[in-house]
Design a protein that fits this description.
- This protein is of the alpha+beta class.
- The protein has a single domain, classed as Ribosomal protein S6/Translation elongation factor EF1B (Alpha-Beta Plaits).
- It has helices at residues 26-31, 43-64, 105-114, 137-146, 153-156; strands at 3-6, 11-15, 33-41, 68-85, 88-100, 118-126.
- Strands 1-2-4-5-3-6 form a six-stranded antiparallel β-sheet.
- The longest helix is centred in the first third of the chain and has 22 residues, at 43-64.
- The radius of gyration is 17 Å and the shape is globular.
- The termini are far apart.
- Mean pLDDT is 77; it is low at 1-19 and 151-162.
Length: 162
Amino acid sequence: MSETQETQGGAAVMADEETKLPPLDEETMRTTRLYELCLLFDPAEATRTWDKLVEWIRGTLSDRYGAHVYRVDKWADSRKLAYEIKGLKRGTYMVVWFRAKPAVVSDLDREIRLDERCARHMIVVHDFEPPTVGMAAEDFETAVKDREPREREFGGGTRNGR
């Protein structure tokens, strides 16, 4: 099914055919945005049912919302949380990079929020393509810094227009 690789940052990366998607057509690129979805799971449940969780999120994104899933990452088996979330002191993170139409993100957000398996989640929109499989965290940060700086609203990125 899929092969897992360990990266320098301790993140397990699911390397499979989904990461080598063919180039999307111009219409799809124009009408969709790139998103990063971070989910937090109970580490005991994630260890037992990781493949089912990956299958659930891929199915939800692809089948229900028509998204193109680029990659699914697992961040360690159990990380200590800074504060307790829904009774959890430790958690397992899943990070998913996908491309979807902006109109479906609110419905996706609601569906994940109502799912009992996920303790917390966050969806972030990105302007750059996802990192390649196995890319070290340092290389990814360098790639992000090297991209062209974006113009910010409210005075070009200065605080309070000053």
